[in-house]
Hints:
The structure is a homodimer of 329-residue chains.
Chain A (H helix, E strand, L loop, with lengths): L26 E2 L5 H8 L9 E5 L5 E6 H6 L6 H4 L13 H10 L5 E4 L5 E5 L1 H20 L8 H6 L2 H28 L1 H6 L2 H4 L1 H24 L4 H31 L2 H31 L10 H23 L1
Parallel strand pairs in A: 1-2
Antiparallel strand pairs in A: 2-3, 4-5
Helix pairs in contact in A: 4-5, 7-13, 10-11, 10-12, 10-13, 11-12, 12-13
Amino acid sequence: IAAMTSAPVGRTAGRTVDVHASVAVPVTTPDARCREVLDGMRGRRFESASTVAVCAADGTLTGMVTMERLLAAAADTPVRDVMDAEPPTVTPATDQEQAAWRAVHRGESALPVVDEAGRFRGLVPPDRLLAVLLAEHDEDVARLGGFLGSSSEARSAALESVGRRLWHRLPWLLLGLVGAFVAAGIVGAFEHQLEEQVLIAFFLPGVVYLADAVGTQTEALVIRGLAAGVSTGRIALREAVTGPLLGVLFAAVTFPVVLLLWGDLRVAAAVAVALFAASSIATVVALALPALLHRLGRDPAFGSGPLATVVQDLLSIVIYFLAASAILT
Amino acid sequence: IAAMTSAPVGRTAGRTVDVHASVAVPVTTPDARCREVLDGMRGRRFESASTVAVCAADGTLTGMVTMERLLAAAADTPVRDVMDAEPPTVTPATDQEQAAWRAVHRGESALPVVDEAGRFRGLVPPDRLLAVLLAEHDEDVARLGGFLGSSSEARSAALESVGRRLWHRLPWLLLGLVGAFVAAGIVGAFEHQLEEQVLIAFFLPGVVYLADAVGTQTEALVIRGLAAGVSTGRIALREAVTGPLLGVLFAAVTFPVVLLLWGDLRVAAAVAVALFAASSIATVVALALPALLHRLGRDPAFGSGPLATVVQDLLSIVIYFLAASAILT
Lengths: 329, 329
């Protein structure tokens, strides 16, 4: 018996459970008595002894039994009577975060890994699951916050020097800076409309903010859904409906308010139409960008956070000025 | 022996470890032999048997020993020789997320709880630590994403109906809608400057975006730092320096670029000054808002995400137009 691996969990770790599985765990057969199992564990070194794998003679996993159940059972009880015969299992290729999520939601603190034939390949022990969840948490917050993934360790990121701080932040901010110049170019293309009706400029920040807020909500859903094993496809339809619905609500509120407070029917209509269109597109962008990056062989997580915000903001500016141009001329 | 609690972990759970501590765990004395401890656990029901608490006669926790070490040790070894004599401990009032963080970073999968006098009060078992980490993760992503905290359960949030989706999103979006009208009012106050020099409007989205991006990074640091037990105070000084430094970098890039591409010295200066000022203030706002909410008796976490974004965006608009007014007149 030897541990398959002791690779550190964190930013450099693989994203699948295979690097976390340990074979230095107790294994028994369904017919063994609880006492025999407990006796047989004495004097041996395990990486994790909290759960015992129950395997048939051919190595197929037939169940799992926790130390707590082994201790509580009568000494002569066969393991098959106290084991969980349908434990949640994962394959070596399962995403590590989904595996951890599944374990937690089944109330398990260790997770057996089986191959395609159902043979036991090892156990992801509790301390590994904990480390995976913590690392993924740090990574998500770093991504949404616009840090380089490599600074995802919470404590060090919070306390690192000003120089390293700048280094971990600048890449995404430089993207934002380029975005700012592109935005200026887009607004400049509609200079004529702005000069004719300066009121258009009043609502530019609001339209950009609201569409971005809708998209950010979708991003959060996708990130959390992926962790829980929910595919983007299952989220997509409802999100694609939610965007336009929110857009209708925005339009229904802004049209009368802008008309009442600023007294311009056409600008009010342009703002309402732009909010509807931009909100409708925001959920689609938030769903499509990670999928697109995945197709391009990039980490889909980069489709959340700063990149998505910049793309969405530029789209919103285009949409708003197109709507204003169409309605005002 | 009875479990102190079996309260569900999640959004409704308390934020401290006391609700997670179990007393249905094995307890022994430092002088007991490993064999005695293992024998004594047979036939008993524990909530968690992965770690044994080692306590003196007066109930003071003197160490912790894992099941793995008990099994590996020679039968006659006293527990004191194999126990961890300085385990990481928490008090019942310790924040649950910080507790989980500490356990993971010490490589522990269970965490003893002791009172002020050092007496053992229970053990937070691995499955509880896992559940805490998952719940806090969901909560952080929901907050940053602009969802109601009550929809923080990842899987259900990803799959809930369109109606509930709207319900969980609308509160923060309505705040954004109010912010959009306030923004329009602020821009309107500078209508005269905009009519004189429409070029100002070109850089409005960029200034707002960049200051917001800087603030979002600080928010992410605060959220992750708090989880890791790093106080906002320790983050504050370096962040207060980082903001102006980023502002100087932004100004140094934008001034020549705006001057070169748009050919207006005064607008270039206004954009540069505004980016410097807005970035400097962004980190302060991101640090101060959670602290302010805490003072007002509100959850400081609401200082991250949509509320912080709206406040920062409005501030940036004011700063930009003040800078433009001062330089252009």
